[in-house]
Write a structure and sequence with these properties.
Length: 282
């Protein structure tokens, strides 16, 4: 049987972790698939999508900087990707290429895996950031009907655009990064969604340590390093840390299920990921 190809389409992919995780899952089921990197320039992007349309690839992930740029090339978007306005997963359905977004649901699955007692509809949360990942998480959280959402971002206009996108369904308030200290005592969960603190800038954090307190759940979706400065300080103040590896595993698992129709081997994927991260991370 010929090997079927899956790809991660993006730019500057030398540290991408999806291949190791997806190939481990494909091998687990001994599927005749391989998952490869498609590190393409803006000029090569359209051609890569045409290869996908011609059947050379049977599915793909899409990452920075193409999550929005890919939209006009697709035959259809899932309602969820439409709401977010960005795509991280492409699958083929009845010969049509369909765009989906598994980032936000992947985050929620990782949160509930670690804290199964949480009732999302009772929760008040603050999201720091209003970029691609923040948007996906905010939309997925809004779909769960959470009680209150604060969005804090460096560029307020960007946060206000996100607020407009979701405020019809839930109560959303935009705050500046410095106003975060006024709202942090009113929340149950803080989700950090900017690259601040990511390798090599591991000594940076966007949240002053004194804002953390006992019982607050603090997610950092940055996974390199596994324990960011923000999570380390949250833990020191008695808050409950939640790192970004779970989101990476679960968004990948949901993509795997779209492509293969099989239940993703979460533990196999997580093991492969941790092994690769611990080989690479400082
Ligand atoms: P993005 O679309 O480029 O958005 C970046 C966000 O961070 C924007 O809100 C930006 O604010 C803010 N930001 C950037 N630098 C900042 C700084 N120095 N100070 C304050 N705010 C700053 O990026 P993204 O795709 O959302 O990714 C964000 C992070 O999440 C990355 O580190 C990425 O690796 C990680 N991520 C993890 C997963 C996972 O599975 N764990 C999935 C996706 C992304 P402005 O609007 O003001 O520019």
């Amino acid at each position: 049987m010929p090997v079927r190809k899956l790809a991660l389409i993006g730019r500057s992919l030398q540290h991408a972790k999806s291949p190791v995780m997806q190939n481990a899952a494909l091998q687990h089921y001994q599927l005749p698939f391989c998952y490869e990197l498609c590190d393409v320039t803006e000029d090569q992007f359209a051609e890569t999508i045409l290869q996908l349309k011609s059947g050379e690839y049977c599915g793909a992930n899409v990452t920075i900087p193409y999550k929005e740029k890919v939209l006009p090339y697709l035959d259809r978007l899932t309602p969820h990707a439409q709401r977010i306005g960005a795509v991280n997963t492409i699958f083929i359905e009845d010969g049509r290429i369909v765009g989906d977004n598994t980032d936000g649901d992947g985050y929620i699955e990782s949160l509930l895996e670690e804290f199964p007692y949480l009732q999302l509809s009772n929760m008040r949360i603050a999201i720091i950031g209003a970029g691609g990942a923040a948007k996906a998480i905010a939309v997925s959280m809004a779909m769960k009907g959470i009680k209150k959402m604060y969005i804090a971002n460096r560029t307020i206009d960007q946060a206000m655009r996100l607020q407009k996108q979701i405020q019809l369904s839930i109560d959303v308030e935009v705050v500046t990064l410095s106003q975060l200290q006024e709202v942090v005592t009113n929340i149950d969960l803080l989700i950090h969604c900017t690259p601040v603190g990511m390798y090599p800038n591991i000594h940076e954090s966007i949240v002053p340590k004194h804002l953390f307190y006992k019982g607050l759940i603090v997610s950092d979706i940055v996974y390199n390093p596994l324990e960011t400065k923000l999570l380390k300080e949250a833990k020191e103040m008695g808050a409950i840390p939640h790192n970004g590896v779970g989101m990476l595993v679960h968004q990948g698992a949901l993509a795997f299920e779209r492509w293969t129709g099989l239940k993703a081997p979460i533990d196999v994927m997580r093991r492969a990921l941790y092994q690769s991260l611990s080989n690479e991370i400082t």
